[in-house]
Amino acid sequence: MVAVKLGMLHYVIDHVYGAFMHRTRAITPPFFSRGWGGPKLELLERMAKQLFPMYVEGQNWPPPLVRPVWRTVWETRTACLREGVFQTPCDDELTAALPPESRTARVAWLVPKNVPPQKMSCVVHLAGTGDHTYDRRLRLGGPLVKQNISTMVLESPFYGKRRPFLQRGARLLCVSDLLLLGRATIDESRSLIHWLDTEEGFGKMGICGLSMGGVHASMVGSLHPTPVATLPFLSPHSAVVAFCEGILKYGTAWEALRDELAAQKITMTLDEVRERMRTVLSLTDVTRFPIPKNPDAVIFVAATDDGYIPKHSVLELQKAWPGSEVRWVTGGHVSSFLLHNDAFRRAIVDGLDRLEWKEPW
Predict the structure, then answer these.
(1) Which pLDDT does position 246 carry in this prediction?
(2) What's the pTM value of the predicted model, to 2 decimals?
(3) Low-confidence ranges of the chain (pLDDT < 70)
(4) SUPFAM superfamilies, alphabetically (predicted)?
């Protein structure tokens, strides 16, 4: 009985937080207040449908090699934190669709000192919804320095210093922006992992992310041609779950989306608009992606009483990727994010332990 009440409390906390963040529109506009995105959405739908033929064995690999320009933020006897910038490796058509502010990628890199890279691992951490800075992910990865695990934090397009001028907070202006953010994150992450492998010579690589970042981490791990540890935390199998089923549906500008269609002489009810959103966001369904090269190194960490991500969504992806593992932490989306960093760190360590060390050059 106590466990049931506690679980309900976590679930309620998620909904109270969601009501404050996503139903209060006086401070910031809702998601997609400027509509679907017009030609950009059509471009991204086409690109998403081409995604798998582009990434089949031997095609579109290696990705464009990035060469970050680094500056040292701080340095101690045991570790060094650097920040780097590089031009997004997206193709010309995709780069032109990005807002100018998002075309320069930014990363933070926390590296153990006095350890050769072939005896180290590096994990790329991707941003969850609303994570505009490096700080949270550096705090997650920081203690792993003692275990010779380096942390690389990618700032998402549309977030932080890459946020478009007219965008307020994390509220993307158009539906196309969500797909654009995801596709650019995939391309940038793949190029970074390739750089860590071929230029820096790390012995093992991993990709992780929380919530939206976990969806993107799943995609990157799925499409990578060699085994990487893939670690999605508190994440659904598709953006459909977040925006059409979870709390974010209360922070979505359904009326604006309907009005844009009406201006194009397309009459839809709000229910039909939501169904169209489901169709568009089904392009983000990770169960459609290939099984990663080493599914044993895929560890999902999910919350028992998550108001944003229902259990069935996590289990759908585990079923699609036989050999992967789901670990449950007690809590909701918000409380687990705050209280269970140790569980996330254990998953990172265990996922990397399930990989073989790369043979030295």
Answers:
(1) 83
(2) 0.90
(3) 1-27, 49-60, 360-361
(4) alpha/beta-Hydrolases
pLDDT of amino acid 1: 52
- Angle CA 127–133–139, to nearest 5: 80
Under DSSP, the state recorded for 299 is E
Q: What are phi and psi of 199, to 5 degrees?
A: -95, -40
With the C-alpha atoms ordered 33, 39, 40, 44, is the resulting torsion angle positive or negative? positive
pLDDT of residue 358: 84
Report the pLDDT value the prediction gives residue 44, as an integer from 0 to 100.
82
Domains of the chain: 1-354 (3.40.50.1820)
Report the distance separating Cα 204 and Cα 201, nearest Å.
Answer: 9
Q: Which helix (H) or strand (E) holds 352?
A: helix 341-353
Q: Give the separation between CA 285 and CA 289, rounded to whole angstroms.
A: 8
- Cα-based angle 28, 30, 36 (whole degrees, multiple of 5): 135
User: Using alpha carbons only, what angle is made at residue 344 by residues 76 and 303, rounded to the nearest 5 degrees?
Assistant: 150
How long, in residues, is the chain?
Answer: 361
Look at strands 79-87 and 104-112 and give their pairing. Answer: antiparallel
| Nearest alpha-carbon partner for 55 in 188, 181, 174, 220 | 220
Give the span between the Cα atoms of 165 and 162, in whole angstroms.
Answer: 9
In this prediction, residue 50 carries a pLDDT of 65
As a whole number of angstroms, the distance between CA 32 and CA 240 comes to: 14
**Residues 6+ away with beta carbon under 8 Å from 118:** 201, 202, 203, 357, 358, 360, 361
Among 269, 274, 283, smallest CA distance to 178 is for 283
The separation between the first and the last C-alpha atoms of the chain, rounded to the nearest angstrom, is: 58
Q: pLDDT tens digit string along 192-223?
A: 999 999 999 999 999 999 999 999 999 999 99
